[in-house]
């Protein structure tokens, strides 16, 4: 067991964090060696299994990420942009593979990730599921095949607690559509409509976000022309798919050269 890659989970108390703890601790291909939470969190000092309402797992929740990362071969991080920026520096210092599922990253955050990738492998994706990454590929191909007579809309739905919009997955899909069209997403994205907006501009890619209940994740890419529509859709009903994808990425990243990778690399797409 001790020769299995050791993995640290950040944001261990969150929905995704707890799912990752469960997935890694039950895996026969990796070991859970650390769980990190923000300073002052009530779980600090507790066994993560007990804090989650189950049996002891032998891993104590800590707010000292540097110490936790120093004994890990990989870090799985679904936290917040500001936290990810700090974690990426520490993971690079520890030469651990850093799997980043954090969304809402701005250009200044991405610059920190780019610098850290010079020292350690980083796998970053807005979505870790196989199905979504196949949807991204399909979106790129369909967008390339259709001209601007087909308006493109990305519609996403998530639970009421999600704090960023559009979702990271929606932006992945928008980027894929823009690449298929041979344009820059930033130049053609419509990310909010309210009031008298005027007619839709030809060639623009629109985004709509729905928030409510416990929706895990739903994404539609709509190609709409006069007289017909093509709809590509992915529905997630269990966030375990993202945890399994993240674990796959962490295992894939072992012994990889420093650099930035994504789930297309991990899945061989």
Automatic annotation (TrEMBL):
Top enzyme class of this protein? oxidoreductase
Its pathway, per UniProt, is:
Amino-acid biosynthesis; L-lysine biosynthesis via DAP pathway; (S)-tetrahydrodipicolinate from L-aspartate: step 4/4
- Please name the catalytic residues of this protein: 158 (proton donor/acceptor), 162 (proton donor)
Instruction: List the SUPFAM superfamilies.
Output: Glyceraldehyde-3-phosphate dehydrogenase-like, C-terminal domain (SSF55347), NAD(P)-binding Rossmann-fold domains (SSF51735)
Q: Which CDD domains match?
A: DHDPR_N (cd02274)
What Pfam families would the database entry show?
DapB_C, DapB_N
Keyword annotations:
Amino-acid biosynthesis, Cytoplasm, Diaminopimelate biosynthesis, Lysine biosynthesis, NAD, NADP, Oxidoreductase
Chain residues that bind NAD(+): 11-16, 37, 101-103, 125-128
Please give the Gene Ontology molecular function terms for this protein. 4-hydroxy-tetrahydrodipicolinate reductase
Q: Might you give the EC number(s) for this enzyme?
A: 1.17.1.8
Q: Where does NADP(+) bind?
A: 38
Does Glycoprotein count among this protein's keywords? no
Its UniProt entry gives the catalysed reaction(s) as: (S)-2,3,4,5-tetrahydrodipicolinate + NADP(+) + H2O = (2S,4S)-4-hydroxy-2,3,4,5-tetrahydrodipicolinate + NADPH + H(+); (S)-2,3,4,5-tetrahydrodipicolinate + NAD(+) + H2O = (2S,4S)-4-hydroxy-2,3,4,5-tetrahydrodipicolinate + NADH + H(+)
Q: What family classification does the UniProt entry report for this protein?
A: Belongs to the DapB family.
User: NCBIfam families under this entry?
Assistant: dapB (TIGR00036)
Subunit notes for this chain? Answer: Homotetramer.
Function of the molecule? Catalyzes the conversion of 4-hydroxy-tetrahydrodipicolinate (HTPA) to tetrahydrodipicolinate.
Q: What is this protein called?
A: 4-hydroxy-tetrahydrodipicolinate reductase
| Species of provenance | Acidimangrovimonas pyrenivorans
**Gene designation:** dapB
